[in-house]
Design a protein that fits this description.
twelve-stranded mixed beta sheet; alpha/beta; 19 helices
């Protein structure tokens, strides 16, 4: 059996200009990075601006498990299936972070015969977008510390610097550090923090900005510190936004690649959904909608995180109206939620499935609260029994959700025809009555409680004293009518990763809240979630290599 990378390396890629031509994109509207990837220019965006929008399909999933759900694989396979059916379809995805690539989760280009290629480039440096975001982020940090060192005209309080340095790598040793040691020439000593690049506000801004002017304004509006009197200091006070935008000029352009079946994919931005807002860029999605009749996009991790933020943050800010939601699940993952150990998931176990399917039920019900039709995609494995599959289909029917089997991992687009037909029926039905979960007029704490109770199933929220203080400060600055991005474990509907299935009788614990003023939302930190992950005991990096002829080895 071929590995993902072997399948990808055997792919017959079209020149990216031919893929673009199929969407009506001229060569001079591309900024090519070699023969198989390109950026889509501002001129293209301007030309297609008045085109009618296609239908928007969101792919999301149940809570992730070690068994794997295949959300990105399903997204890619669905797009390939639509292409096989003669539909003008474009996939819109996030870019991978190097942290998971070298850690444990893996990349973000799909798998099996439903992949986006060139897989090695995409999962490693790609077109350099994440490096540019890291550089822009750390330029601001350098300018802030230099300002303090060079006389501190803004009277920044070194104890109240809130903007963090970033690195696109899992490095737990950098979570909390001390900088400026070694004498006066090295700056003001203070405590500092690193976060992974995909959790940075610069990443969020890149994904929510509508154009360069909006990008620059949002960068300038980032809250970086407080002065000695407790007044806010923003990036524009340091005159940093122009240089940051210059670093991000090309990174702000969406990337065009293709699947194994040459279906076009616009890939741009990559915020995690457990610690950030989990969606690809607004510009990528909008451009895809202008170029295609059907756009298949995804949001990170389970629907409690990615889908909720897609609906309440991205759709609200970008004016998007999704036509259908696809909820990915596997028999194995549902049995894991029902208490079965990972090494026993291949065995039929209807009792465990009945217990674990409560997680699927919760997500179906939650998606219905946003007014979008739901299609459940069962990512099929050869160990799934007919009885198990029948039970899931019956449960979905009882909840008013369509159910389809997906075999795109082994068969590519051919294995997604059943799913594609049902998704088309839902998207074309006109039944979507999309609306966000909560009004922005609620207070920050009320919005957090709304999500906790209506999406997670919590009885209530416990706000730590630090969180209460932060909310008061944020609202005093005038940031009340903003959506909320909750940073929470992806493994459970609750804030405890060990509570699988559909947890009951729990309280969500919010330890702190911060304002991402440039991005335009508040971030609430639940439980012990970290914004800088660490590597596992056996990181995937140990198995990755490169041959003497330059071929990447061991990358999935």
């Amino acid at each position: 059996m071929l590995t993902d990378i072997q399948i990808a390396q055997n792919a017959k890629l079209l020149p990216i200009s031919e893929v673009a031509e199929g969407l009506g994109i001229a060569k001079d509207e591309l900024l090519q990075y070699g023969q198989d990837k390109a950026k889509l220019t501002y001129a293209l965006e301007a030309r297609v601006k008045e085109n009618p929008d296609g239908k928007l399909i969101l792919v999301t999933a149940i809570n992730p498990t070690p068994a794997g759900e295949g959300k990105t694989t399903t997204t890619v396979g669905l797009g390939e299936a639509l292409g096989r059916m003669g539909k003008r379809a474009v996939i819109a995805l996030r870019e991978p972070s190097l942290g998971p690539v070298f850690g444990i989760k893996g990349g973000a280009a799909g798998g099996g015969y439903a992949q986006v290629v060139p897989m090695e480039d995409i999962n490693l440096h790609f077109t350099g977008d994440l490096h540019a975001i890291t550089a822009a982020n750390n330029l601001l940090c350098a300018m802030l510390d230099n300002h303090i060192h060079q006389g501190n005209e803004l009277r920044i309080d070194p104890r109240r610097v809130v903007f963090r340095r970033a690195l696109d790598m899992n490095d737990r040793a950098l979570r909390k550090i001390t900088i400026g040691l070694g004498g006066k020439a090295n700056g003001m000593p203070r405590e500092d923090v690193f976060q992974i690049t995909v959790a940075s506000e610069v990443m969020a801004i890149l994904c929510l900005a509508t154009d360069l002017a909006d990008l620059k304004e949002r960068l300038g509006n980032m809250l970086v510190a407080y002065d000695m009197e407790g007044k806010p200091v923003y990036a524009h006070d340091l005159k940093a936004q122009g240089a940051m935008a210059a670093l991000l000029r090309d990174a702000a352009l969406p990337n065009l690649v293709q699947t194994l079946e040459n279906t076009p994919c616009i890939m741009h931005g990559g915020p995690f959904a457990n610690i950030a807002h989990g969606c690809n860029s607004v510009r990528a999605t909008r451009l895809a909608l202008k170029l295609a009749d059907y756009v298949v996009t995804e949001a990170g991790f389970g629907a409690d995180l990615g889908a909720e933020k897609f609906f309440d943050i991205k759709c609200r800010k970008a004016g998007l109206k999704p036509d259908c939601a696809v909820l990915v699940a596997t028999v194995r993952a549902l049995k894991y939620n029902g208490g079965v150990a990972k090494d026993a998931l291949k065995e039929e176990n209807l009792d465990a499935l009945k217990a674990g399917i409560e997680n699927l039920k919760a997500h179906i019900e939650n998606l219905g609260k946003f007014g979008v039709p739901v299609v459940v995609a069962i990512n099929r494995f050869h160990t799934d029994s007919d009885a198990e599959l029948d039970f899931i289909a019956k449960t979905c029917e009882e909840l008013g959700a369509t159910c389809a089997l997906s075999e795109v991992f082994t068969k590519g687009g051919e294995g997604g025809i059943d799913l594609a037909e049902k998704v088309l029926a839902a998207a074309d039905s006109g039944k979507s009555q999309f609306a966000p979960l909560y009004p922005l007029e609620l207070s920050i704490s009320e919005k957090i409680e709304c999500i906790a109770k209506n999406i997670y199933g919590a009885d209530g929220v416990d706000f730590a004293p630090a969180a209460q203080k932060s909310i008061r400060e944020i609202e005093a600055l005038g940031y009340t009518d903003v959506p909320v991005c909750i940073a929470k474990t992806q493994y459970s509907l609750s804030d405890d990763p060990k509570k699988l299935g559909r947890p009951q009788n729990f309280t969500l614990s919010i330890r702190d809240v911060a304002i991402s003023a440039g991005a335009g939302f508040a971030v609430a930190y639940a439980g012990d979630i970290m914004t800088m992950p660490g590597l596992p005991k056996r990181p995937a990096a140990e198995g990755i290599d490169v041959s003497e002829d330059g071929t990447i080895l061991g990358l999935f």
